[in-house]
Amino acid sequence: MPVAAFIDEQAAGLQRHLGRFDFRSRWFGVGRSLICFAELTVILFTPPKALLTPVLTISDGARCGGVRAASAYCLVGGTSHAEYARWLLVAILLLAASGYGPRWTAIPQLWAIYSIAVSISVPDGGESVSMVISLLMLPILLTDDRTWHWQPAKKPLRPTAHAIAFAAFWAIRVELAYIYLDTAISKFGVADWANGTAEYYFLRDNMFGVSTPWAGIFLPLSKNALIVVGMTWGALVVELLIAACVLGSDRWRKVGLVLDVLLHGTIILTMGLWSFALVMIGTSTVAALPMRKAPTEKTPAEEANDTGGPKRAGAAAPVGAT
Asked: Quick check: helix, strand or coil at residue 58?
């Protein structure tokens, strides 16, 4: 096939995909709200003293060196005013999670999640993922002029905004696939994961181990060699499958979302880690956004049909009218 023909074919395929893509659906709204809600639980149910506690070489209080100085905890005056930062972040995340004004809450959402991720003493993977995904969602949200992110789209995006949102959507999918792929592959280099015994030790960990009422189920089961190997290697297989599904078609992305909910739902039951699980499920929901026909501009005739007839002066009266 000539190079020019190949380029034209790829361009036509990209145009078809763009024509079917519109992020303005409840899938995107649910995913975004879950991510914001997950970070909201971190600061709402954990006092600042616990989040900013000294750990090893980390001094007491918010970390404010370098770019961290832009976080809410540092801007309000440091640890002594951490409660003010806490409630400011709660208000921002509540507003973003509600879905109001996506375009206007996008940057505050990113700043709030950034403040949590870079300032608290022991951030987990959820804070890092939510910060990166919020950054990748930013160009999408800035093109969204709806009042609520729950509303259906009524008019098409501008071509440039459409292309930017589509590229950002793909960036989110690639990032999520990389996270799961990297997580699964890196575990093969750890002896307990490689030999299939990791879940046995995780379930009995003093801090993250399974607690009642599930301890009475999982602890006896994990004493069986075949079951514990299945649980350990099964987690790796599921992570690899999610990574593959995220890059697939609409149907496969939905399969990936189901697997993601099952994986992190099990983690919630056995280890807790609620905020981390909700961030990952929310990100998978955004990535599972189905392609659908984007709204198009209506012709005057179509608008007239929608409103029950032509809206112009001097329109002819119906035949037989008096």
From this structure: strand
How far, in Å, CA of 101 to CA of 110, rounded? 14
Task: Report d(CA 49, CA 59) in Å as an integer.
Answer: 12
Of 142-146, 205-209, 223-227, the poorest mean pLDDT is in 205-209
Q: Is 300 exposed, middle or buried (0-12, 13-18, 19+ CB in 10 A)?
A: exposed
* Residues 6 or more apart whose Cβ sits within 8 Å of residue 33: 96, 97, 98, 99, 149, 282
Check if the beta carbon of residue 230 is closer than 8 Å to that of residue 238. no
Q: Classify residue 207 by its DSSP letter.
A: T
Tell me, what DSSP letter sits at residue 100?
B
Identity at 84, one-letter amino acid code = Y
- Whole-angstrom distance, CA of residue 59 vs CA of residue 78: 12
The Cα–Cα gap between 137 and 168 comes to 7
Q: 267 Cβ partners below 8 Å, 6+ apart? A: 273, 276, 277
User: Residues near 78 by Cβ (< 8 Å), separated by ≥ 6?
Assistant: 61, 62, 64
Residue 153 has a pLDDT of: 81
Nearest one of 82, 85, 90, 88 to 45, comparing CA atoms: 90
Distance CA 230, CA 165 (A): 40
| Structure confidence at residue 58 as a pLDDT band (50, 70, 90) | low
d(CA 233, CA 140): 36
Q: Which stretches of the chain are DSSP H helices? A: 3-20, 26-44, 48-51, 72-75, 82-98, 102-119, 125-141, 159-187, 191-194, 198-203, 215-221, 225-246, 250-271, 274-287, 300-306
CA–centroid distance for 297 within its chain:
30
